[in-house]
């Protein structure tokens, strides 16, 4: 997800926020006092209570323990929509991601949402017209943070990313945001289930001229493809068409820097900022 597409609100988020607030008050804690116990900022706690942020699993588990909520928060969390802030045309793909065995992503527009730290995500959202409200920004950031739990899923999903070096050279959001982004990419690349490759600025033989793409292996070993534009998307199930996408992706993997060389480049780029 790259642009400012129409998000959906979630009544279940607001309901969870009310439950959290009730247990916080029962424990006689302020938002500032609860924040260090769940290892999130007071503003994040406030956003969850207001129904503007999707609570990650670690937040729920720590709040459950800190507030002695006897399972109520975990129970309420099971009814929270996992799709707030995602464009309606993206939600089907996002649902498929949750059970996928393999996900391969090539991106030439922005760093993939699964790898975006919050500051970079905010900069991307705010840079694409039309202007949006702060509530919409928070919804979209929350949706991206929630999707990132896929990186740590059990059982693990095999993830492969190919990212254009030009996306990092652009310095979206400024120097500090870019430095945080590169550090996050390095951390993600260290995960055992993640292969991260950088497509160098100079690559005369490049199979990605048709644009960004994703291919996914489902639990029944079917392969699906996905492409998107600013206002549309296409989920592809035709085996012949998906095979072409797999061929493109395989070719780009051979053209991009190896994972080890990609991390080395990222460290040099970070050091130069």
TrEMBL record:
Top-level lineage group: Bacteria
Gene3D superfamilies: lambda repressor-like DNA-binding domains (1.10.260.40)
HTH cro/C1-type domain residues: 20-73
PROSITE patterns: HTH_CROC1
InterPro entries with a match to the protein in the record: Cro/C1-type_HTH, DUF5753, Lambda_DNA-bd_dom_sf
Listed name of the protein: Scr1 family TA system antitoxin-like transcriptional regulator
């Amino acid at each position: 997800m790259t642009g400012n597409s129409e998000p959906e609100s979630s009544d279940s988020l607001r309901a969870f926020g009310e439950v959290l607030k009730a247990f916080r008050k029962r424990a006689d804690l302020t938002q500032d006092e609860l924040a260090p116990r769940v290892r999130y900022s007071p503003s994040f706690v406030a956003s969850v209570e207001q129904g503007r942020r999707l609570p990650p699993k670690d937040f729920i588990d720590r709040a459950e323990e800190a507030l002695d909520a006897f399972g109520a928060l975990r129970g309420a969390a099971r009814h929270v929509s996992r799709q707030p802030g995602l464009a309606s045309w993206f939600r089907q793909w996002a649902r498929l991601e949750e059970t996928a065995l393999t996900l391969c992503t090539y991106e030439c527009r922005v760093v993939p949402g699964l790898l975006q730290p919050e500051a970079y995500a905010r900069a991307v959202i705010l840079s694409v017209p039309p202007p949006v409200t702060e509530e919409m920004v928070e919804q979209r950031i929350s949706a991206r943070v929630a999707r990132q739990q896929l990186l740590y899923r059990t059982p693990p999903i095999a993830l492969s990313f190919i990212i254009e070096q030009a996306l990092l050279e652009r310095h979206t959001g400024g120097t500090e945001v870019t430095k945080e982004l590169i550090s996050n990419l390095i951390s993600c690349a260290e995960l055992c289930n993640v292969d991260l490759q950088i497509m160098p600025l100079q690559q005369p033989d490049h199979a990605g001229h048709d644009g960004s793409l994703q291919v996914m292996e489902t639990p029944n070993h079917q392969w699906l493809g996905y492409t998107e534009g600013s206002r549309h998307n296409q989920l592809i199930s035709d085996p012949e068409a998906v095979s072409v996408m797999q061929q493109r992706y395989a070719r780009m993997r051979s053209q991009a820097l190896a994972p080890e060389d990609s991390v080395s480049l990222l460290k040099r780029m970070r050091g130069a900022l």
